[in-house]
Each structure stands twice: as C-alpha cells, then as structure tokens.
C-alpha cells in the first residue's frame, strides 16, 4: 500500500512539473476561436533564438485578420508580453493571407485574413546570461477580431514555460511552426511598380518566380494603396504580370511615398506568397500581352452599394438630428445667430455657416478617430462613449448652466480671462460659430436619430477611410439647414428682421438650456448616485460664486474668482461612477438562452440614462400598463441591458448587431436553437410590439 501511495505521489509530482514546464498552453475557447500558445522547443540554450506561436482554430465560417485587414476588420494583435527578463521577443511572422469575401449579394467586402486555422510565429531570444536549469516563463496578451456575418472582438492571455539547457525540439509543435515560417512570404527579386491613371492603379511585376498567375492577387501592406473590394484585373504577358484596380484613399495628387505588399500565386505545392517592394514613380516593361485579362474579386457594379446606402443613411440621419431634443438648445443658439445676420452681409452669413459646419465635421471626425483608436487598443466602446463618464456629464451640465445664465443677462462675457470656456460659443465671429458646432456635436451624441444608428454602427467597423466618409456626410447633413439659409436668399429673406424680439428670444433660450441641465443632472444621478448629485450642485454653486467674484472691482476679487473656478474643476473631476441597480431583470446572453429554452419569447431593451430616444420609447411604450400586460399575457420576458456606465460586454453585444450605440431593441423567439433575433425599429409603437410578439409566438 505504501508503495502504491509513493508511486502515485511521484507520478503526481512529475505531472505537475511537466505541466509547469510544458511547451504549450491550454487550448482556450474564446468564443468563435480556440487559441493556444505553443513553442518549437521545450529546452533552449543561453543565447539561442527559438520560436513560439499563437495557434488559432476558427469555427466554421469565421475568420481573423492579416495586419492589413482589407475593407474592414482589425489585425491579430499582441497587446503585451509578461515574460522572464532573460527573454526578448520579436515581431509576428505573418502567414500568407487570402481574400475573404463577406457581406450580402448586393454588397461584398473583401477582407484579408485567415479562416479554418492559422499559426503566428514570434521569434524569442534567450539571454546569454541565462543559467542552466532555469525555467523561463512567457505570457502573451492576444487580441483579435473574428467575423462571419457579424464581428466579435475576442482575446485571451496564454502562457508557457521553457527550460534553459541543451536545445531540444518539441516533437509536437516544431514541425507546425517551421512549416508556417517556411510558407510565410519573404522578400524576393521581383521588379515591381505602380502608377495611377485617372482613378485606376496599374501594377506591373517582372522577374516572377515559376508558378501559375491566372488567379494571382496582390495584398498591399498598408491600407489606402488600392481598394480591396474592387476586382483586380489580371493581364499575363510573356515577361510578367499586370494588375489593374481602383486606387485607394492614399492616392491624392501625388502617389504614396512607399508601397509594397504580398503577391500571392499558385506554386507547385499550393498557394505561395512573396514580399514585393513596389516603386511608385514608374512601372517595368513586361512585354506584349500573352493572354486575355482575367478578373479576380467581386462584381464591380455591386461592390460599393452597401457603403453608398450607409452614406445616404448618414446624410438623412444628420438632417433629422437637427430636430432631436438633445441638440435643440444649441441649434436654437445658431438659429438666433443666423437670424441676426440674415439681412446683412451675405458673405459674412456664408462664412459663419461654413465655420459652424467645419466645427461639426471636425468634431464628428475627431470623435470617430478616438473610437477607432480605442477599439484598436482593445477597448469596447461605442458611439456617445464619453457620456458614460460622469465627469463629462458634469462638465456639460456646468457649461450649459453657465450659458443659460449668460443668456438671461446674469453676467456678460468681458475680455481677458473670462473670454474663454463658455464664452467660446457666445463669441461673435467665426470662432464662436466653430465652437457652437463643436458643442452641438457633443450634446447630440446621446440622440441616435433615425437612419443614424445603422450608419454609425457600420462606420466604426470599417476602414478609417469609409468611417471618415460616413461621418463627413453625417456632419454635412447636420449642418445642411444653415448652409441652405446662407446660400438661398429666398430662405434668409423669410427670417424676421433683427429687433427687440431677439433680446426676448435670447432670454427665452436660457430655459431650454436649464432643461438640458436638469436632464444631465438626472443622468449623473443614475451614474454617480446621491454623492454625485451634491458634488455637481456644489460645483454649480462655486461657479456662481466665481462669476460674481470675477465681476467685482475690489482687490483680490479676480484672483479669488480664479481659485473658485479651479475648485469647481476639482470637484467635477472627482465625480466617479457607481454600480447601477437596474429596474427590471438584467440582461445577459446566458439569461436569454435560459428563458428561450423555457419556452418564452424574450424582449431585450438596450438603453442608457443619457439616451433621449430610449427614454421617449420607455415612457410612451415600454413602461405603459398596456405593454406590461401584453408581456405578462404572452409570457414574454423583458430584459434590460443598461449602458449608462461603460460596460464592454454590452458594447460587444451591440457590435454583433451592427450598432455603435443605443437604443437597440431585440425580440427573440422561444426555443433551444441558435437564432438571430429580430431587430426592431428605433421608434417603437404599441401596435408594432403586439404584432411582433404574436408573430414569434405563432412561429
């Protein structure tokens, strides 16, 4: 018996040590990808370079991305390493990508990436000073976007150990990693160049390796060289290959300074890729044409329909945004400004309208760039993400409170120090118009106007160029009414002439400002509770005291006013979120599956306290007795996904359905099967919900 116990103990210790020193991590299911970190060596020598690799096994139909993802997507990324000091890591050795078409029949995107499986080797060098017998650990923090019809950001941390000793290949993984390294594209001797003819890019390749090029494809290293979704027209000559396609956003008047990429073709053992440096000022002579051109890629006539439809939706959304309640106080200020100038110098009116437009467009583009950068860094954010920070809500409440006081004439903006901050939107001239546009965008983001939700959700999952075009169009739509007044004299002549009415109207506009302040205070209470409420009210009190001090003439008054403003800022910065207690049943994907399996339809309300359309729908429809009774009678379970404060799980779920913000309403039928829910419109009606629930129950 003692022998058995000792044997089992020794076996257990051996297995523990073996596992601790394994040259592979556990296989981790991150959702639609199974990920693993593996090594080509189990033992390494001091000073040796070996390779570890991220191994991905994708679910059927799903794919991840190359470092240029193509039309949309994000590349596989290593966010960081946590490793022994004796190890130094290099860059990813990228596998050969392929062109992956996605989308519907009427709109196809071409992504560059990997499906089924992929291996991403990384060189690791051991310090010459590493001691024999040391166990060296390395952990990678990996992030990747995995897509099918929807895209899901996934990631995980994976770790493994290697022993310092006599070099020893890992029998299981060394062959796989070596194969991946051997097949990864390497710089060859191809002579290549690219030029622009009208909007077309002409690439030519000479000194080609032996292979078949009738299905060749060029993958640029950087976005903007060519348009991925436009077909590549191939012409094979007796001396080389020509590829013709559309130029990308990187071509303006002059060609890009550098270009390069991977030319994929068919070798004797399958697809092969070679790295190519492409000259941008000339193309090589490849002789006479030897075969008819072939086209590789989706149909050119339908390739951009989806983008065009989203551009149109963004334009309509921008126009409708002018009548949304979020922006009424600010656009009213602009309307008053235009009315003052409408019967004056037409050139000044147009300059003013354009500066307002530039302020709007610059703000939309800056906010989009911030979202794309945060998402590229692994953050799960969406449209109006800044409203999830109570400090931003507090600053806006204070700013609108100060503007309201100014409109009532409680204080006038003088020169010097006071001529900053809130005064920017009240200043006359072009600067004031620009910052009025900026403020209009900031307060507009909680209002997802009709047509805008889909366009915004689509934009932040696309390439930077597509996102910029969509939000540029959104900004133009938002500013359009003021541009029309500036450029159509018949419209400006219908505006009332300046007079005493403007003074009264200016004072009246203070009350919509105060109404917006009340709404922002309510939002802040949802985010930060009673503590946040008294902090914000204290900050407003201090602001009023500062304004009074700054208008006094006695010694030290202005210095004390500045100190009061600093105190107000310190109080506002100290605001922080709290845990939100949702009225109603809290949403989770697991709870949806559980309720559906019990035979219940499930209605999910993605909402936020700062979302004005959400609150309108809740007040008019969702929280009414009629709809509550309907849910009860039909067994429909009502779940709430509250996005008032930042929640990456909810952000990821919104992204699955092509949304960048709230509201979003989903209706799931009962059942155990995997099924896409029906996405309901942003504007709800009681009759619509009744019809939709009856339909899912009858099916």
Question: Radius of gyration in whole Å, from Cα?
Answer: 31 Å
Range of strand content: 25-35%
The gross shape turns out to be: globular
Provide the domain count.
Answer: 4
Quaternary status of these chains?
Answer: single chain
User: Which regions have little confidence, pLDDT < 50, spanning 5+ residues?
Assistant: 3-21, 289-295, 297-305, 414-428
* SS class: alpha+beta
* Main β-sheet description: 9 strands, mixed
List keywords for this structure.
699 residues; alpha+beta; Immunoglobulin-like; 4 domains; 9-stranded mixed β-sheet; 5-stranded antiparallel β-sheet; 18 helices; 27 strands; 40% helix; disordered N terminus
How does this structure look, described?
This protein folds into 4 domains: 21-183, Sandwich (Immunoglobulin-like), CATH 2.60.40; 187-296, Immunoglobulin-like (Sandwich), CATH 2.60.40; 305-573, no CATH class; 585-698, Glutaredoxin, CATH 3.40.30.10. Mean pLDDT is 80; it is low at 3-21, 289-295, 297-305 and 414-428. The strands form 5 sheets. Strands 14, 15, 16, 17, 18, 19, 20, 21 and 22 form a 9-stranded mixed beta sheet that branches. It has a 5-stranded antiparallel beta sheet with strand order 1-2-4-10-7. The protein is globular. The protein is built from 18 helices and 27 strands. The chain is α+β, with helices and mostly antiparallel strands.
């Amino acid at each position: 018996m003692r022998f058995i116990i000792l044997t089992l103990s020794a076996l257990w210790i051996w297995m523990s040590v073996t596992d601790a020193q394994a040259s592979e991590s556990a296989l981790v299911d991150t959702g639609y990808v199974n990920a693993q970190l593996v090594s080509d060596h189990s033992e390494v020598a001091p000073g040796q370079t070996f390779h570890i690799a991220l191994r991905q096994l994708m679910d059927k139909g799903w794919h991840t991305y190359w470092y240029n993802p193509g039309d949309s997507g994000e590349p596989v990324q290593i966010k960081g390493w946590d490793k022994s000091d004796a190890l130094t890591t290099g860059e990813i050795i990228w596998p050969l990508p392929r062109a992956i078409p996605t989308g519907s029949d009427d709109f196809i995107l071409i992504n560059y990436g990997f499906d089924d499986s992929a291996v991403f080797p990384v060189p690791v060098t051991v310090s010459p000073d590493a001691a024999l017998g040391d166990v060296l650990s390395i952990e990678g923090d990996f992030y990747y976007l995995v897509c099918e019809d929807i895209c899901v950001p996934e990631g995980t941390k994976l770790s493994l150990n290697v022993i310092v000793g006599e070099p020893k290949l890992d029998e299981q993984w060394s062959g796989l990693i070596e194969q991946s390294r051997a097949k990864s594209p390497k710089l060859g001797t191809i002579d290549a160049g690219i030029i622009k003819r009208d909007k077309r890019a002409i690439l030519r390749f000479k000194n080609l390796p032996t292979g078949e090029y009738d299905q060749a494809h060029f993958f640029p290293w950087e976005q903007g060289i060519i348009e991925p979704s436009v077909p590549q027209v191939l012409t094979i000559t007796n001396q080389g290959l020509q590829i013709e396609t559309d130029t990308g956003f990187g071509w303006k008047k002059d060609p890009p300074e550098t270009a390069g990429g991977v030319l994929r073709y068919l070798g004797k053992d399958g697809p092969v890729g070679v790295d190519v440096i492409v000259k941008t000022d000339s193309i090589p002579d490849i002789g006479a044409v030897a075969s008819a051109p072939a086209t590789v890629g989706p149909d050119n006539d339908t390739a951009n329909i989806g983008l065009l439809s989203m551009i149109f939706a963004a334009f309509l959304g921008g126009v409708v945004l002018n009548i949304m309640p979020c922006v009424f106080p600010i656009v009213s200020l602009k309307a008053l400004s235009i009315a003052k100038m409408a019967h004056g110098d037409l050139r000044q009116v147009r300059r003013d309208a354009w500066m307002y437009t530039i302020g709007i467009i610059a703000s939309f583009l800056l906010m989009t760039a911030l979202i794309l950068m945060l998402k590229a860094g692994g953050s799960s954010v969406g449209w109006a993400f800044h409203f999830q920070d109570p400090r931003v809500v507090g600053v806006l409440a204070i700013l609108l409170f100060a503007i309201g006081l100014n409109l009532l004439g409680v204080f006038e903006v003088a020169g010097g120090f006071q001529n900053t901050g809130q005064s920017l939107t009240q200043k006359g001239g072009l600067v004031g118009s620009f910052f009025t546009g900026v403020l209009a965008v900031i307060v507009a983001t909680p209002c997802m106007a009709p047509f805008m939700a889909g366009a915004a959700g689509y934009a932040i999952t696309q390439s930077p160029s597509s996102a910029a075009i969509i939000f540029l169009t959104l900004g133009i739509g938002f500013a359009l009414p003021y541009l029309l007044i500036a450029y159509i004299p018949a419209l400006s002549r219908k505006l009332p002439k300046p007079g005493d009415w403007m003074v009264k109207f200016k004072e009246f506009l203070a009350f919509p400002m105060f109404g917006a302040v009340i709404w922002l205070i309510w939002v802040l209470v949802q985010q930060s509770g009673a503590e946040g409420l008294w902090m914000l009210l204290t900050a407003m009190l201090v602001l009023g005291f500062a304004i009074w001090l700054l208008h006094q003439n006695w010694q030290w008054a202005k210095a004390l006013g500045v100190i009061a403003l600093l105190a107000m800022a310190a109080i506002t910065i100290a605001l922080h979120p709290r845990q939100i207690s949702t009225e109603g049943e809290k949403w989770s994907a697991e709870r949806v599956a559980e309720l559906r399996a019990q035979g219940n339809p499930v209605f999910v309300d993605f909402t936020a306290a700062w979302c004005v359309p959400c609150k309108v729908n809740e007040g008019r429809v969702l929280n009414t007795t009629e709809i509550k009774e309907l849910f009860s009678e039909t067994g429909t379970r009502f779940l709430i996904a509250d996005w008032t404060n930042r929640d990456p799980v909810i952000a990821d779920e919104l992204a699955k359905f092509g949304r960048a913000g709230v509201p979003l309403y989903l209706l799931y039928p009962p059942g155990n099967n995997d099924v896409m829910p029906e996405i309901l419109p942003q504007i709800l009606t009681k009759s619509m919900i009744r019809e939709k629930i009856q339909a899912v129950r009858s099916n």
